[in-house]
Amino acid sequence: MEEVKLMKGNEAMAEAAIRAGADAYFGYPITPQSEVIEYLMHEEPLKTTGMQVLQAESELAAINMVYGAAACGKRVMTSSSSPGISLKLEGISYMAGAELPCLIANVMRGGPGLGTIQPGQSDYFQAVKGGGHGDYRMIVLAPATVQEMADFVDLGFELAFKYRNPVMILSDGAIGQMMEKVNLPNQKERLSNEEVVNRYDSWATSGKPETRNRNIITSLDLIPERQEKHNIHLQEKYKSIEENEIRYEEIHCEDADYILVAFGSSARVSQKVVQLGRNKGLKIGLIRPITLWPFPTEIIAKYAGKVKGFLSVEMNAGQMVEDVRLAVNGKAQVEHYGRMGGMMSTPSEVLHVLEEKIISK
Amino acid sequence: MITTEITPEDIIKKGKIVFQKTSFMNDCTLSYCPGCGHGVAHRLVMEVIDEMGIGEDTIGVAPVGCSVLAYEFMNIDMQQAAHGRAPAVATGIKRVLPDKYVFTYQGDGDLAAIGTAETIHTCNRGENIVIIFVNNGIYGMTGGQMAPTTLEGMKSSTSPYGRVVETMGHPLKITEMVATLPGVAYATRQAVHEAKYVRKAKKAIKKAFENQRDKKGTSIVEIVSNCNSGWKMTPVESNKWLDENMLAYFPLGDIKK
């Protein structure tokens, strides 16, 4: 049944995975997301829903366990934080190539390298531009609240299976660690083995009956003509995702002279900036991309001719701002403001930058 | 003048069948070099699956290496894994489908170099799977580079003057290593270059799958094989070299049973 609880973002995501009827979670501890596997190990969902939880020996092993289980048509999830996601990229590229549905959460910390354990958003490029090798895309969902940490789990699984594609929840250490009220969804029944076979028998490897040809899960095709055809098929799929799955939130954009573009924690800060600015008589709006890929290009383009400028607020050196610029296409001024290394900006700091860089020009 | 077409049945009279290719091997050309042991090893695995009647309930995992295309040859549901990750992939399958039979088929570069961590930890968890490990002491697919199992003094394209153990390390006996782990139910080393070895290897593979049926834990069957192309020998020379050199360092027999 539905329940209202006060939870950490990481815990809400873990609980939502159980309630989404996930079949398995494979993970490896890393700060600031270890609560996900800790929560699952504590809850022992194997005893209630039958969900398997396993601590792997590495992120590499974890993502490849996801590969194996996902290839059986199961709802499988993993989570990590930035350095661990770098390791998972091998498996993510293979899963994109083999068209396997799965859910990967990245609770970002600042980088590069071991970086810091404090929140960051510097894996934007990695998440939305591919990250691993080859021409592939992941659907990237960016939660800004603990509620969305929970909500995006089932949504992520649904999208993953709809398109047979990896989906990433791109969160950050602040949202993973903060506690908020969360409405937990009803428990979804896990699919039985028979139901999985009925639904996914055209591709899933669950044992070949005499009645069908063997199913093969692979990203390999050594014949260039066939591999190109496969790539064209992937690109067509990505195009259909771009046409159908863009999600965003608009806050006070209708009359805005200036628009902030921000996701995740930065969107929370930016919401306050809108309020502070409006208290001073400045007409500021906020576009919060919820899907970072596919990116909400059209809505930004729509406002590009109307507003005086955009400020992309991020916890990085300027990554999403490139997509904002592409969307604005020279029709308005676009600036970036970001803190790095685990630092978060304050609303007054962002407002000051907006005034300095755009409003006073 | 011949007026009727001659069919194979006119030449080959069907009598009592004493040996037949298992239907679990597909009718296609194998990608292996003539003389290579992989074909025999494939056949043995599929014969065992056939004889145990578990073809509908078996999922195989192909590696990266010469046997990367194993899924083309085996007529069961198969997955292709990233280099070295087959045991992790197999773990994922087995955890969500514990009643199915799961096996990996891996070479020495895949299992004993890049996949060492996955191999050891899968064995240490005692995942109830079968690992078929073909050790030919070289990287065949990429063109004959040094493998973790390349013998001391053995030449390869990345040890052109022979393997120097002081700088390149010693040939790795990974089957002995994993045999020390409590999760491993069965560890054995076999060969397929002569009929007598083929018969023993098949028995070992069967035992491994029976262990899985009986939920005993991980079974690993190492098959010491040749690589006549990589070793730059004729198939006959390579089998002789295998006998004299490989088997001296990698002795055959059960390591843990």
Describe this structure in words.
The complex is a heterodimer of chains A (361) and B (257). Chain A is of the alpha/beta class. Chain A folds into 2 domains: 3-184, 3-Layer(aba) Sandwich (Rossmann fold); 248-359, Rossmann fold. Chain A has helices spanning 9-19, 35-43, 59-70, 82-98, 124-128, 146-163, 173-177, 193-200, 224-244, 264-279, 297-304, 320-328, 347-359; strands at residues 3-8, 24-27, 52-55, 76-80, 102-108, 139-141, 166-172, 179-184, 216-217, 248-251, 258-261, 284-289, 291-293, 309-314, 333-338. Chain A has a 7-stranded mixed beta sheet with strand order 3-2-4-5-7-6-13, with helices on both faces. In chain A, strands 10-12-11-14-15 form a 5-stranded mixed beta sheet, with helices on both faces. The termini of chain A are far apart. The model of chain A has no long low-confidence stretch (mean pLDDT 97). In chain B, helix 9 (195-213) links the parallel strand 7 and strand 8 (218-224). The longest helix of chain B has 19 residues, at 195-213. Helix content of chain B is 38%, strand content 18%. Chain B has one domain (32-256): Thiamin diphosphate (ThDP)-binding fold, Pyr/PP domains (Rossmann fold), CATH 3.40.50. Chain B starts with 7 loop residues before the first helix and ends with a strand. Chain B is globular and about 70 Å long. Chain B has 11 helices and 9 strands. In chain B, the strands form 2 sheets. A 7-stranded mixed beta sheet of chain B has the order 2-1-3-4-8-7-9, sandwiched between helices. The relative contact order of chain B is 0.14. Chain B is of the alpha/beta class. Classes of the chains: A alpha/beta (361), B alpha/beta (257).
